[in-house]
Amino acid sequence: MRKYRFTACLIAALLSTSTVFADFNYSADYSNERVVINGVTNTETEEISVQVYKPNAGNISDSGNSILFNDQCTSDGGKYEIPFRYDGAENGIYEINVRESGTDKIYTKKIKLVPKQEYITAVSELNKASQSSEQDFVNAFNTYGNVFDIDEELKKGKSFQDSVKKLAAGIKNSQLTVENNQLNDKIVNTYVILNAVKQSEIKNVIGYLDYLQQNDDFIADLSKICTSDVKAEYLTSKLKNIAGFGVDGADKSLREALILTAARHSNVGALKAVVEKYGADVGMQLSSIKSYAYSSVSGKDYGSAADLNTALKNAESPSESSGGSGGGGGSSSSGNKSNSTGSTGVTFPGTGKAEVPEINARFIDLNTVEWAYEAIMALADNGIVNGKTDNEFYPNDKVTREEFAKLLVCMARLENSAYSNDHFADVGADAWYSRYVNIAYENGICNGIGGGYFGVGKEITRQDMSVMVHNLLKSNHEAMNPLHTEFADDNDISDYAKPAVSSLSAMGVINGVGDNMFAPKDNATRAQAAVIIYAAYKRMNGVISQ
Question: Which residues contact 149 (CB under 8 A, 6 or more apart)?
Fold first, then answer.
């Protein structure tokens, strides 16, 4: 396997590329001097061509002696497979080019090939030397180690010879096999790469995952957590402290490092998913862990998976929430931290306000609003909301009318829109909310409370929140459901708000607070606002069906 020179930020792009040929696979069997190239195509039957160029081939447009293999095929059922033998080929790095029919696009990967007899000799000599002495193995590796696919820069590193010495003990206990060269490469690289990590020669291990032969599923999970070099370097620092050698040790260590990185740098939902998927692999006991516990541990630094496991089990049970389910239960308290600036403490792309911090939402105070987890975390991941502090969301704080107007304007990406006038007597031109209120008004999202006033500073009611969201969806040309959905307190809903509440309820954008009550004149909480905004966000982005 060859290492792809990519950073953490590029992993997701590599995995999700729409160009299927970039994802072709290959395998090399040294014991039979055989290579298989396979992949998928955009159509059921499509012509592709494959060329394999020899080491140091130079200009790939040159033909003749520079080409080891050249063939064409037609995919069958959208799949293709091309095997070939490389009898007599030299030891080296070859280049595979796959070309899409009718285009000039070429998709390339590197492959290490070794002649059969050379490989048999190397494996035999290394196995024998490992049973003799450490120095004998080092000498043998210096002679025969070029049969393994190892990063050239790492071979020059100060830790390389020490890695070879550690490898000697590993091969002494578990001999190499001629029949599985890919496994042999992985064994060797676990010692070389992880020892380089331990010796601080590798600061970011992401670019070496291909050498460690991690599967696409694990790399996809890693890409969701390590979305920046800062996070990838944190994962590497954890790997430095916990890395175990050998194939099993490397796989376990990488998964433990991923879990610890998710705990420190990701949101509650992502941490929960990673722990549930890989926790058992690293010895975590998951049976007694409740979902609310994850909000208590998220955002913190742990030395090991065992430490995290203990913290999860020791997490306090949540107090009884006065809220309901789904669309946001009613909240009884506003929290004990005020926002002295009058803003929501949320950050929006393109507003010129504070940037989203490197560490994503990791709120420790969501144990009373578990019904709002998904909405709060999804909006935080998309840069639509932040907490009032680095790790506190204050879900039960109330939301003012101007704050909610800003949320909707920015969720709809209208914050940079021009507006013509100041429309309300209580909205000063220099106020932080002036732009958002006026844009919302001119886009038909909100009205005032009468008498030329917007109602600045007033906590928004659940029914007024519904009206604003209803107006936004209408302005986005969403089809409003005319069905009437009755709540037990339907008579308490003001006439101007009934169409909005009815329509949004029928669409599933809002829910009640329990016992079929809507509580229209209760003040909306930050958690409730997040849930309804998230529902509208999904609706506007085509996630919810019409």
Answer: 1, 2, 112, 185, 189, 211
* Cα–Cα distance, 434 to 479 (Å, whole number): 30
| Amino acid letter for position 240 | K
Burial of 165 from C-beta contacts in 10 A (0-12 / 13-18 / 19+): middle
Within the chain, what is the greatest distance between any pair of CA atoms?
94
And the tokens for 157? Answer: 């590193």
d(CA 72, CA 100): 10
Give me the half-sphere count of Cα atoms (radius 13 Å) on the Cβ side of residue 110. 16
Q: What whole-number distance in Å separates Cα of residue 487 and Cα of residue 196?
A: 64
CA-CA distances (angstroms) from residue 104 to 17, 53, 79?
18, 17, 21
Counting Cα atoms < 13 Å in the Cβ hemisphere of 491 gives 1
| Helices then strands, each counted (H, E), the chain | 18, 7
Structure tokens at 11: 């992993």
d(CA 529, CA 347): 15
pTM of the model: 0.57
- CA distances 171 to 61, 196, 252, 331, Å, are 43, 19, 19, 62
| pLDDT at 473 exceeding the cut of 90 | no
Q: Distance of CA 391 to CAs 226, 296, 369, 386, Å?
A: 19, 10, 15, 9
Query: In this predicted model, what pLDDT tens digit does every residue of 339-381 receive, in sequence order?
Result: 323 333 333 333 333 333 333 445 778 877 878 887 887 787 7
Residue 54 CA to residue 142 CA, distance in Å, equals 24
- What does residue 109 show for φ and ψ, rounded to 5 degrees? -140, 155
Q: Are 273 and 230 in contact (CB under 8 A)?
A: no
C-beta of residue 104 within 8 angstroms of C-beta of residue 57 = no
Query: What is the number of residues in the chain?
Result: 546
Query: Token pair 């917007």 is at which residue?
Result: 454
Task: Please calculate the CA angle 187-235-171 and round it to the nearest 5 degrees.
Answer: 15
Give the Cβ contact number of residue 25 at 10 Å. Answer: 12
What are the strands, taking DSSP E only, across 376-531?
none
- Residue closest to 2 by CA, chosen among 21, 18, 25, 20: 25
What confidence category does residue 73 fall into, taking pLDDT thresholds of 50, 70 and 90?
Answer: very high
- When computed from its CA atoms, the radius of gyration of the chain, rounded to whole angstroms, is 30
